[in-house]
Amino acid sequence: MKHHMAAKIHTHTGFWLAKAWPEGAEAFGKLHEKAFSAGAVDSKTKALIQLACVSLLRCKHCLNGTVARLKNDFKATDQEIAEVMMVASFAAAGTNMAWAQEVFDEQIGSK
Fold first, then answer.
1. Is 2 left (phi over 0), alpha (psi -120 to 50) or beta?
2. Phi then psi dihedrals of residue 2, to 5 deg
3. In the chain, N or C terminus with fewer CB closer than 10 Å?
């Protein structure tokens, strides 16, 4: 299943980059195509990983495009999408708890 997602989802990027630096836009498109094509990891799993990443990065238009792709191209359910976003949220919470421990040990607990 071949997708031209770079044109579909990254129109905000492709528009300015294609005008300002056509070679860069072409390279970005090739990277995107390679990164998201099926390999050792299938394309749906890669899209779910992208969902986790863009959710944590809080990129609304990336999130919208990724969710649309998951639903349209891979028939992902709302529950699959919610579970992936919850796993990403848990990872972020764990990371922040480790940071909080460092701050506590360095700034609060030592006083």
1. beta
2. -100, 135
3. C
Alpha carbons 106 and 92: distance in angstroms, whole number: 21
Tens of pLDDT along 5-31? 444 445 555 678 899 999 999 999 999
- Least Cα distance to 37 among 1, 80, 91, 71 occurs for 1
For the segment 45-83, what is each residue's pLDDT rounded down to a tens digit? 999 999 999 999 999 999 999 999 999 999 999 999 999
What residues contact residue 11 under an 8 Å CB cut-off, 6+ apart?
Answer: none
Tokens of 24: 């860069």
**Pick from 71, 66, 62: nearest CA to 13:** 62
**What is the dihedral angle through the alpha carbons of 67, 72, 76, 82, rounded to the nearest 10 degrees?**
20
